[in-house]
């Protein structure tokens, strides 16, 4: 078992692992573990995406379980990029929390 380093922001020793991330419960800082290879996320045009980037939808997307549709051109801020089927965690006005695939967005 590897030793977990202290938080780089506040120096707390109470850091814990959550998948590929290390999380500090005192200051809520999250960062990737040094030994994990970081996945590169790219939009439909091949631009590299990072947490906090603004993206624009390039296709109308139906919201599963409702009659709502998210229209082309809707701008969304990426909350977090995750290594799952849908890569982007975001919040869309009028819809709420949603997961998107990187193939349906372009960097704004």
Automatic annotation (TrEMBL):
InterPro entries (UniProt xref): YjdM, YjdM_C, YjdM_N
From which domain of life does this come? Bacteria
Coiled-coil segments: none
Where would I find the Protein YjdM N-terminal domain in this sequence? 4-32
Q: Name one Pfam family in it.
A: YjdM
Q: Which part of the chain is the Protein YjdM C-terminal domain?
A: 42-108
- Give the family, as the similarity comment puts it: Belongs to the YjdM family.
Q: Which PANTHER family match?
A: PROTEIN YJDM, PROTEIN YJDM-RELATED
Name of the protein in question: Alkylphosphonate utilization protein
